[in-house]
Design brief:
seven-stranded mixed β-sheet
Length: 278
Amino acid sequence: MSILLQHSNNYLLHINHIRSKMSVAASISSIATVRFPNCRRHCFRASPSLSLRIMAQFSSSTTSPPPSSSDAAPAEAKKPPKLPWLVVGLGNPGKKYSSTRHNVGFEMVDAIAEAEGIALSSVSFKSLVGKGFIGDAPVIFAKPQTYMNKSGESVGAIVSYYKIPLQQVLVIFDDLDLPFAKLRLLPKGGHGGQNGMRSIIDHFKGSRDFPRLRIGIGRPPGKMDPASFVLRPFTKQEREELDFTFQHGIDAVRILLLEGFNKAATFVNTAKPLEQCG
């Protein structure tokens, strides 16, 4: 009998200890301790062992610890960040060369950056630089301030520092051999006599495998020296035509960065002549 009383006392202490979590405990304890009234022959009393088994099962179901983090489904592996595109416009620094034919690469980069809300407001690697995104593609705009013939010093340093693959380096420059205001997008090629491109290829250790957007500035009239012609400003009419060219270039670069080279090349190289637009 004393053993039964001791067992019962321990049981009641256990109930008090977990009362805050198990409201059912009171009903089970009453089954274990109270006789039903008016019961003469078959008075029901739950045995202590039965009650303890019920309590133990209930307690284990309500106090089991949450699954550990090791049991949780593994999180998706993070994708490595995208490497940026480098979009370079070639030209010469200073007011003397501003708005000349040789600086049309600078002007195209300015137009694209402005359309995308990116300011070229910092100076690094001997270049005016602006960083941002076109869609979800990171991009760096650069206008080397080394003068045209040494453009590779700036471009090579940026590519090396940011570890940019050459197929993500777009160089925009003027081309005497294209009709005025015409664009041509190519995946690779030589320098074509353009000294800025010559310098960049030299700093890429002779590699020509990078895309370039050529902007036609036309041929010099008569027997004018090409070196003098590229430093001439555009006429008013030519400026109006260039506005369409710059808009076309903005669209082309967006397609290039977001949809790939082939789509961009198709867009640029199969475009209608300017006189057919509008």
